[in-house]
Amino acid sequence: xxxxxxxxxxxxxxxxxxxxxxxxxxxxxxxxxxxxxxxxxxxxxxxxxxxxxxxxxxxxxxxxxxxxxxxxxxxxxxxxxxxxxxxxxxxxxxxxxxxxxxxxxxxxxxxxxxxxxxxxxxxxxxxxxxxxxxxxxxxxxxxxxxxxxxxxxxxxxxxxxxxxx
Length: 165
Prior knowledge:
It is built from three helices and ten strands. The chain is α+β, with helices and mostly antiparallel strands. It has a four-stranded antiparallel sheet with strand order 1-8-3-6, with no helix packed on it. A four-stranded antiparallel sheet has the order 2-7-4-5, with no helix packed on it. Strands 9-10 form a two-stranded antiparallel ribbon. A hairpin with a 4-residue loop joins strand 9 and strand 10. The protein is globular and about 50 Å long.
C-alpha cells in the first residue's frame, strides 16, 4: 500500500518481480523504460542502499555526470492512471512515478508483486548454469545483478566493482 499526496514521487527504479500496480485514489503519472535502457539510467551498485534505483534526478538531470540520460528522450512510455486502473509492470522495467493533483489531494495505490520467473538456463541455486545460449535484455540485466550479489556475498560489497570491472 502506497499513500501520499500530490507532488510526491517514487524515484526511477526497477523491480525483479512482476508488478500489478492498482490505483485506488487520486492520479499518478508513470514513466516506463525498457530494460535495454539500463545504461542510460545509471543504476546504483547492488550493495548500495539505493540498489535498483537510477542515480539521475529526473527533475534536474545532470547531463555532465550522466550524459547518456539524454538518449532516453522519446524512448519511454507514459501512463496516467486513476482510480480503478491497473498497470502491469514487467520485471526489469524501469519506472518513475509521480503523484498528480487529485480531487482530495490523497493518492493511494496497491502493488502486488509476484516471484521472479525462472529465466535463466540451468539451476542458479545449484550453480548449474549453461552458457551455450546468450542472454539479452531483462534476462541479462537480472543475471548481472545475481552475479553482483554473489560477488558481494563472497568478497564483500566493497569489492564488487573491483571484481566485475
